[in-house]
Amino acid sequence: MKYLCLVYSDEELLHSLPESPRDEECLAYAESVQESGRLIAGEALAPVQTATTVRVRTGKTTVTDGPFAETKEQLAGFYMVEARDLNEALTIAAGIPAARVGSIEVRPVRQLDVPARPVAAGKRG
Asked: Which residues are in the YCII-related domain (predicted)?
């Protein structure tokens, strides 16, 4: 089953606390999860001030600078993993170095049963 491990941290504190992980440690952990065959994807995100939020209400699109909500912790990155069950996903999440200074939200990925649509000749999606 797929799980998404969302890494949250206070960007202002992320690299300033004594227990803060260094980028090399985070990369090494991601590589170890990848080598185990459980990492599907993972990325660190650019700082929250680079975020843009899109909303559509009654057919009107609005675009605003910044994240969806003001919080103490911001989404800093993610790991998409394949795990036998929630317990294994939680074990993987506990090993993410940023868990020492932030939090890791673990959520199962919902499998959608979307029928495959044939692609018309000469058209690409």
From this structure: 1-111
